[in-house]
Structure prediction request, 410 residues.
Amino acid sequence: MNHNLTYLHPYPFAKMATLLADSTPAHSYNEIKLGIGEPKHEPPAFVLDVLRENLDKISLYPTTNGIFELRQTIAHWLEKRFFLNHVDPHTQVLPVMGTREAIFSIVQAVIDHKVETTDAIEPLTVSQPPTVVMPNPFYQIYEGAAILAQATPYFIPCTADNDFKGDYRAVPKEVWTRTQLLFVCSPNNPTGSVMTMDDWEQIFRLSDQYGFIIASDECYSELYFKTPPIGLLQACAALGRHDFKNCVVFHSLSKRSNLPGLRSGFVAGDAKILQAYLQYRTYQGCAMPIPHQLASIAAWEDEKHVAHNRALYQEKFALWMSELGELLDLRMPEAGFYFWIKVPEQFDGDDELFVKALYEQANIHALAGRYLSREINGKNPGQGYVRIALVASVDESREAISRIRKLLGA
Prediction:
């Protein structure tokens, strides 16, 4: 077996299962799941209709780069949403089977292990392992992908002190010189922070200086409250970087359109990167079924269902803020569907203790923040926080709020 598998951490929900293994939920309450970020709003019926109408095409092999109509639809959506002059559907867009597999596989495709030798007779000496920089807390696929690509993860703490976006200026030069890939998540999971133009410009300067690729996970970009978040490609275009050099973005229909089971997303950006990545994917064998592609076209072409989806989340966030904002010291995220909640004082800042209490006394599932981050130099930026996903219905949200108020003695 690949020895690097032994370095992988258990997934956050496996850790939660272990934590709650000996706990008994409050059986007087029905279960409310706010731990996993799995959308529960109704998927758009017209997309499911297209899927059903094209089930006969399941007999056809799909190509790795997908049908042109899907790539063209995605290119048009990117141009409209992010104010781009032109996105080439032939070279700058690649459909993928959900962004999780794409985020993982692109690391395997781009990480380059250079070798150094002074004498062809002597054994080759592997140079210092390349580095993949990522936020902390983070989506665990970033770390796992780096480990299995035999790269070294480097974590940038995202804390209240830096608006949960990380301080790139604090990263040592020797780290940047080894960096081949930087992961950015905007809107961020779990903190809800959003990158500004100033933030993007700072990263561009570092990328230009050190030559690394910027990979922007933007799966929550359409779940905003007022102003649409600025995407990586949008920042490129605003600065005249129309070739999107060293930049790739990841988008998905899972959160935007409540279609997590469709496994439909895309990667877009630098044509040179995508050309090589397409070759990698051709060997990997990931190709979206044609019925899924046709259904995806329908989803990307419609914005009404997305606006309705946003309105449902906005209603729930407003409800939580009005009913629990003071008791839980809630902080409104800039986008996304997560609350990143500081643990109440009565639980001594212990996120594990708080999620156990939520489960045992209120039958509510939440996620301990420490499971989404790594301890570096004795500090874990997720410790003392709990992630709650507002994926349940409005009625379930009201019920969850009532139980939490009781738990907190209100």
